[in-house]
Design a protein that fits this description.
mainly alpha; Uridine Diphospho-n-acetylenolpyruvylglucosamine Reductase, domain 2; Cytochrome p450; 2 domains; two-stranded antiparallel sheet; 55% helix
């Protein structure tokens, strides 16, 4: 290791106290650290290697330029058990090969062509609302994204089976992402916590126990129980899809169930389940958070909402009909969405686990370190976005030069 490799400064508090602050108010804690330590700082959490957070664009560029042999994807700080053989946790050539196996069949099915059905699902939820009634924005958006997930992931639009999947998905997501589980994940270490949950799941299913909805005494028991139930439903559907091919189906579960390795062998059932659960968590959580923040920003700024509303109506008048793909091309609508994602990104940062020494901007970071590009902090830098960096102003996306991939990511 280079003698000059060292960690940037950071808070000196005990690891458990840092984990507690991250769990209770991650945005405030990151901003507090950035204000005190600057462009790069180190946090230390229980069960994890040091976490170096960087926010300056040149450092972010170095971060995204890291080579595959410098990082270990299996140690990603995701405290939810989606399986240990999912594409996101695989390294180097195996990761590239996995992407080739999973992505082509999905792309070939043209998933974006489902936009019309997605619009129908949103319309159904909006039409069911009563004028003047109060509602929970994150829950409303979460329900919409769950219905979309049932359709895109499983090909289920309605019916008893769709409702059973939907209820089980929601229960598992809530049991796996509540504050207690997030705090435990931070205390133990996300990758260790994820592995512990997965071992409990495998132990359960190998005994032929596929869950009965029992909560159990331990705080993680319910999450493991629900995953076993959900995985069992998926496993039966994978077998059904393979035994009874249907050329009319193009949902994700069916498509991945028929994906093959280069030697022609089908993916193992557990691998298909892992990929499906990762898509469910990623799609539901990020979509729900992004959409909820988007709605909140618009509601807090009536003039922006009115301008966007008028712009959409103008587009409809010009087209003569509603086109769910055309609507996504409206510049002001996209500017509002980009501004919402800038100030409140669905993920506070992107992480790489170093197994070799690496240059991050002017810093030389030692191996066995977690490095994170802090999107939340970069997106609020005044030296990048100007003095109004903390203001919600969609017009910035329609004027002059757009930000680089290392200023907005």
């Amino acid at each position: 290791m280079n003698d000059h490799a060292q960690l940037p400064p950071g808070p000196k508090e005990f690891k458990f106290r840092q984990a507690l602050k991250m769990g209770l108010s991650i945005y405030d804690y990151l901003q507090q650290c950035a204000d005190e330590f600057g462009d790069a700082f180190t946090l230390n959490l229980p069960g994890m290697e040091p976490m170096v957070w960087v926010s300056r664009p040149d450092m972010v560029k170095s971060f995204f330029s890291l080579k595959p042999d410098q990082i270990d994807q299996s140690k990603l700080a995701i405290p939810i058990d989606v399986g240990d053989n999912q594409t996101g946790f695989i390294n180097n050539e195996e990761h590239a090969h996995s992407r080739k196996v999973i992505i082509p069949p999905l792309v070939s099915k043209r998933l974006h062509d489902r936009a019309q059905v997605m619009h129908e699902i949103v319309t159904e939820h909006i039409d069911a609302m009563q004028p003047g009634a109060e509602f929970d924005i994150p829950r409303l958006v979460g329900d919409i994204t769950l219905d979309i997930a049932c359709y895109t992931l499983l090909g289920l639009r309605s019916g008893e089976k769709r409702d059973q999947y939907r209820d089980l998905m929601l229960a598992w997501i809530q049991a796996s992402t509540n504050n207690t589980m997030f705090l435990l994940g931070n205390m133990v270490g996300p990758s260790k916590w994820r592995n512990r949950l997965h071992k409990a799941y495998l132990k359960k299913t190998r005994k032929g126990d596929f869950g009965h909805g029992k909560k159990g005494i331990l705080p993680w028991s319910y999450s493991v129980e629900l995953k076993a139930q959900l995985a069992d439903m998926m496993r039966r559907d994978i077998r059904e899809a393979r035994e009874n091919p249907d050329a009319q189906r193009n949902d994700v579960m069916y498509t991945v169930s028929h994906a093959r390795y280069e030697d022609g062998e089908l993916l193992p059932e557990e691998r298909v389940i892992s990929e499906a659960m990762a898509m469910l968590i990623g799609g539901h959580e990020t979509s729900a958070a992004t959409s909820a923040w988007y709605m909140l920003w618009l509601l807090k700024r009536p003039h922006v909402y009115k301008k966007m509303h008028d712009t959409v109506l103008q587009s409809l008048a010009e087209e003569g009909r509603f086109d769910p793909m055309k609507i996504t091309e409206i510049p002001y609508l996209n500017a509002c969405l980009s501004e919402s994602q800038r100030l409140t990104p669905s993920a506070v940062g992107t992480m790489r686990c170093l197994i070799k020494e690496a240059k991050i901007g002017p810093l030389t970071i030692p191996p066995n370190t977690n490095v994170l590009a802090a999107a939340y902090l970069t997106h609020r830098r005044k030296d990048v976005w100007g003095d109004d960096a903390l203001e919600f102003r969609p017009e910035r996306w329609l004027q002059g030069k757009l930000p680089s991939p290392f200023e907005y990511y």
